[in-house]
Amino acid sequence: MNDGSADRFDHGEFDDKDDREDQDERDGKDEGNDDWDSGGDGIGDGQQEKHGPPDGPVKGDGRGRDPDQPPRIPMPRASVEDGGRLLPAPAALGDPTPQPAPLVLEHPVLKSLLGAWALAACSPDETAAVEEHLGDCGSCADEALRLREAVGLLHPPESLDLDPALRTRVLDGCLDRRPPRIPVPEWAAPYDAETARLDALLQDIGDAEWHAPVRLRWFDGEGPTSRRTTVAGVIAHLLTVDGLVAVALGLDDPLGDLAAEGPTPGARTEAYWRTSHFPPTRSVRAPWRDQTHDLVRTVSFAGGSSGSARLAVSYGEFELPLHDAMLDRAFECWVHAEDIAEAVDYPYEPPSGRHLHRMIDLAARVLPTALAQRRQTGLASPTHGRRLVSAGGPGRSLRLEIEGSGGGEWLIPLDSPGAVGSAEHEVAHIALDGVEFCRLAAGHVSPQEAAAGQVGDREAIRDVLFAAASLSRI
Questions:
Q1: Which strand (E) or helix (H) includes residue 93?
Q2: Which runs of E-coded beta strand occur in 283-333?
Q3: DSSP assignment of 330-380, as one string?
Q4: Residue 53 backbone dihedrals phi, psi, to 5 degrees
Q5: What is the CA angle 314-319-322, rounded to 5?
Q6: What's the CA gap between 350 and 433, in Å, rounded?
Q7: How far apart are CA 288 and CA 191, in angstroms?
Q8: Are 427 and 456 in contact (CB under 8 A)?
Q9: In angstroms, rounded to a whole number, what is the distance separating the alpha carbons of residues 55 and 57?
Q10: pLDDT tens digits for 215-271?
Q11: For 245-393, where are the E strands, in sequence order?
Q12: What span, in angstroms and rounded, lies between the C-alpha atoms of 177 and 169?
């Protein structure tokens, strides 16, 4: 027995099981010898197996171990990561917070959740269940698409442009505290505001968008016409036509030594486009921007004298006083800024109401002259009841009512540019939205398609609408 014990101890085979067997053996001896002799499966047989080999061939490795049986001391366990198998789930590792099972809902419940899902009002579990269901159910997927589109209509995209009146309010608040040493004249404020808005738009567009196609539209007296160019070409057009005001103020002409066929805006623009070796790029923004600053600065310095505002600016075929020329340039800057914004798919708002009113007032004041020119060229219809009126005398008139922002009322004399509009001699009445009227005057809306309320003499109404469209030019 001592030899067997020593043999097992030397090879590390004693464990808790051996201790329990020894304890059971001692307990059996204390109770009596009956348990030792009760059968062949008792402890006595176990001792015979341990301390003496049975009859017959001996299996094992010489120490009494059967190679067909697992070892009594287990081998070291291999890591799961070493076997290339997936790691067990957190719940199998004893994670105190196991992952919840996916939410399983019936089809009617999932369908009722589509509205909340479209509004992003579902819980994470409900959202996952709905989205998994949409991949299998075509009818629910169609309904979800319609709901998402409806949600988009409830939240229309807003313009990224600031409120056009914000700059004026900020400046007014600053100037109320400390007046400027050299204020910008009121008649030059629209030009200052519109050039600043267009410059902000140009700052945000990319290099490729400077070559986006733009179609300039105007009314040539008999019908609409257009000219194709690019965003950079539009800025070059503004640069050259603003140069008419710059030349009148004694500033440098942006055309330099280039020879134009005439002093008209169209001829100057064509000369600039024709002599450019390459199509204009974003490099044209800097000279245009610098020229706008020079114009505002110059008229501000000269704004204190009454004669400066009446300085004549020649457009080749006609002249405008400086204060009207600055309003004209502000109007064209806004119109072409909308052309550019449309070409690059960017929202653009109309001018502020105060500035828009000044632009409409300029168009209303030049309408009698435009109407007389159309009558001289035979484009205006012969008006029944027309009579000569002395300069400054009342004559037949049309009431032009402008609604919305920048609105008001103007009496347009029909018989002579020198006549004065009179409510007593009113023969027709036109009502238009302010922006609609400006687009008519810019040649972007044809006289036949202008949304205008009309009452009175149809021929007079037609002549005034066509005269308003003929104010446009390239």
A1: none
A2: 312-314, 319-321
A3: HHHHHHHHHHHHHHTT---PPPPHHHHHHHHHHHHHHHHHHHHHHHHTT-S
A4: -70, 145
A5: 80
A6: 12
A7: 13
A8: yes
A9: 7
A10: 999 998 788 999 999 999 999 999 999 999 999 999 999 998 888 888 899 999 999
A11: 312-314, 319-321
A12: 13
